[in-house]
Amino acid sequence: MEYNIPLFQLNFGEEEIKAVVDTIRSKWISTGPKCDELEKQFIDMLQVNFAVSLSNCTDALHLACIVCGIQPDDEVICPSLTFAASVNCIKYVGAKPVFCDIVGPEHININPAEIEKLITKKTKAIVVVHMAGFPARMDEIMAIAKKHNLKVIEDACHGPLSEYKGKKLGTIGDVGCFSFFSNKNISTGEGGMLITNNEEMANKARLLRSHGMTTMSYQRAGGHATSYDIVELGYNFRLDDIRASIAVEQMKKLQKDLEKRILVRERYIEQLSKIDGVIVPFADNNEFVSNYIMPIVLTNSTNEIRDLIREKMHAAGIQTSVHYPAIHNFSIYKEYYAVLPQTEYVTNNEITIPMYAVLSNSQIDFIVETLNNAING
Ligand SMILES: Cc1ncc(COP(=O)(O)O)c(C=O)c1O
């Protein structure tokens, strides 16, 4: 079905098309100058020391776990209300995910007070996810990490350029990870970035993204090196220059795109405040954020009621989604049982409504009116 109002719209134009054509014409399409340019953009725009382009964020999270020194049998505290990749990365390195509850429907990020209770001698790190691009309570999380000597991995997939007390998300913990999947704020189809202020971690990530080889094809083609050694068991996690060239154009548009999303969110909040039965997570956040998605949580609701409301929105031509089905309920994570009442409520009663920069006021009003009729009609 073609929705009248989809969940997301690509912000693509002639710039992206030209960038791809130019890259193809340059005859260098794998990891090369465009990946370098993109990494420099990240370094400048996020005010961070190092950026390593990768084939997706799942790889970034995987490498983050490795460079943070997470070993088999270590424990890593993480939210369950996230996408599978934020937890799968812990399993890739043989460690144990320890699920932590979120604060509640008003703040759907990991709860620092609950993190403290889960720390054991085996705890090595915390994976923080900034849902919808809204910052987790990083001051408290970093204080806990410091006290217990834990590494912090920020899954900042939803929050490029989002800020927490003036700092960019992804730059506060040890490592930050970003995605360029099609529906993300920076879209290239697939793609990702790992950022860090730690040189050793950056070097290791760079080495492991390309088979543990000491030089890459691009350097050899440029005459900077003629041979290579393999010094670690690495992977092929490289981004290619075709996608990087799209990302470079997307980065140039990002600030303006996010500014427009802020206006969309303001209109939503104004309209949603007039209807009963809805909580807007992070409604009190006044910082610059990406507004990657627009989550709402129904009050006094159930999973069945939520699904009925989504069906009514669907019938009206409005696409919705759920962020997210909680990870601890998936078959492969059943063994990591955890009692997470806030996560359970939100996973059963959250609806993600359309969010993109060119969503018009009349479309927003129609979405909220349809939602109101579905809930209260
Ligand atoms: C919170 C979160 N983490 C990780 C990922 C994985 O990103 P990628 O698809 O680039 O591997 C996503 C993407 O959907 C995500 O939303």
Structural category is: alpha/beta
Mean pLDDT reading: 97
Distance between the termini: 25 Å
Under CATH, the homologous superfamily of the largest domain reads Type I PLP-dependent aspartate aminotransferase-like (Major domain)
Q: Which runs of at least 5 residues are low in confidence (pLDDT < 50)?
A: none
Strand order of the largest sheet: 1-11-10-7-6-2-3
Task: Assign the CATH class of the largest domain.
Answer: Alpha Beta
Q: Which small-molecule ligands are present, each listed once?
A: pyridoxal-5'-phosphate
Order of secondary-structure elements: HHEHEHEEEHEHEEEEEHHHEEHHEH
The coarse overall form would be: globular
The oligomeric status of these chains comes to single chain
Query: What's the number of structural domains?
Result: 2
Strand content: 15-25%
Q: Helical proportion?
A: 25-40%
Structure summary, number of beta strands: 14
Reported for the largest beta sheet, the result is: 7 strands, mixed
Radius of gyration, taken over Cα atoms and rounded to an integer in Å? 21 Å
CATH fold description of the largest domain: Aspartate Aminotransferase, domain 2
Number of helices: 12
Return the CATH architecture of the largest domain: 3-Layer(aba) Sandwich
